[in-house]
Amino acid sequence: xxxxxxxxxxxxxxxxxxxxxxxxxxxxxxxxxxxxxxxxxxxxxxxxxxxxxxxxxxxxxxxxxxxxxxxxxxxxxxxxxxxxxxxxxxxxxxxxxxxxxxxxxxxxxxxxxxxxxxxxxxxxxxxxxxxxxxxxxxxxxxxxxxxxxxxxxxxxxxxxxxxxxxxxxxxxxxxxxxxxxxxxxxxxxxxxxxxxxxxxxxxxxxxxxxxxxxxxxxxxxxxxxxxxxxxxxxxxxxxxxxxxxxxxxxxx
Length: 252
What we know:
Radius of gyration: 18 Å
Number of strands: 11
Pfam families: Rv0428c_C
Protein name: GNAT family N-acetyltransferase
Helix content: 25-40%
Shape: globular
Keywords: Acyltransferase, Transferase
Strand order of the largest sheet: 4-11-5-10-9-8-7-6
Distance between the termini: 40 Å
Strand content: 25-35%
Structural class: alpha+beta
Domain N-acetyltransferase: 103-252
InterPro entries: Acyl_CoA_acyltransferase, GNAT_dom, Rv0428c-like_C, YpeA/RimI_acetyltransf
Largest sheet: 8 strands, mixed
Order of helices and strands: HEEEHEHEEHHEEEHEHE
Number of helices: 7
């Protein structure tokens, strides 16, 4: 089902839609994203579409643009980059690979019913959810306003979920539904409550919510080296679709 490049490119577009930057510039088929440095996804070049200009000139222009915004120049590398030789060109220019990540998919047929009932999904962003999200993700006060605006910028149905144990919120995350998919983002559990199956229960709640809003499939992104998360997602039926990584200049 997911084998065609068009299907996978659709997923890549959805990942961009569902984690919005503060601003975007289009440059000859490349999408340049800016969010004051909060997350690589929102502050990088996405070379998704065919180009016409000289690639070396484009890379230099991107470096100048990001430098003028006091940001490192970062390229997100997927199987769909244009031109195809871009990864090698960036390596030759001294860009290093960081954050190898897997995009995983699963069909929403035969979903288990969640057993943990203390979950709440709000379809509007609230201060309470933000407070818990920032606490569990250790988001610094410096980036809170930026991250908040990024979430407000999402233009698709979004479910903001919290999960409680004995009245205390110990996990949260969000799901975004668009074009038949629900994307899962920033699934996080309090370290004191991990290894109890709570993340699995929270994801099941989100997937059922997504299904009720028309989703028939789900995607997520997981860092390749995160063995615990990969075990959880495998248990939930997710399988690898493709991988991506970042090429970063002057990375320390």
